Amino acid sequence: MAALDLLGRRWMLRVIWELHQSGAPIGFRDLQRRCDAMSSSVLSARLTDLREAGIVAPTDETTWRLTPLGEDLVTAMGPLLDWSRTWADQR
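Structure tokens predicted for Helix-turn-helix transcriptional regulator (91 residues):
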């Protein structure tokens, strides 16, 4: 339940997705832009939550990456992505 609570927070999955899509560490401002210019305070809070959960890690003061645990999370969400594509096609 703790994982679902964490992942269900506003913008959380988007931050994870954008970090995964970048394929490399990404700077705070670029991540903010990719997330439709969400507020810096919200992005900072989400990154803090994800860091405390071991899903992301800073590579320096302003650059972030998924950890191996974060990459495992993206892999684990693969079946949900497949299901969502089927669901979208049926709508």
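The mean pLDDT is 95.
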